[in-house]
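Dear colleagues,

As part of the handover before I leave the project, I'm documenting each prediction I ran so the next person doesn't have to rerun anything. This entry is a single chain, and its sequence is reproduced below.
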Amino acid sequence: MFRRARHIALYLPNDGEIDPGLLLRAAQRRRKATYLPVLNPWPRTRMVFQRIKPGDRLRRNRFGIFEPVIRSARQRRVWALDLLLMPLVGFDGKGGRLGMGGGFYDRSLAYRAMRKKSHKPTLLGLAHECQRVDQLPLESWDVPI
């Protein structure tokens, strides 16, 4: 997945999340386009993905998580990404995932419910094995990995 992907979205770790920094640097060395999530100021529930390059300036968002300074010209639609790495708080063997509870990834990926044939981006959750649970309850709006 990583080798074939040309547009990869990752995240900056927060509160004990697995750090995908090695993957970010490997992607950039291979000249892949890399993106980070950015929370929109309005609507406050929306998250977009913005291309980043080494040395780009970062700032803390309203949750204290580092993100790029907003530049709309560098943003890419989530459905145009090839690979999306997401931090997980918990997960199960059926694709159920638990995040920090804000629903930002679910809202960003809600289009997948209407586009049954859409397989982009490939979703990959990062977590420790100790975060696996037998089963997570899934709501209608939850987007599995």
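The first strand starts at residue 7 and ends at 9. Residues 21-29 form the longest helix (9 residues).

All the best with the project,
I.
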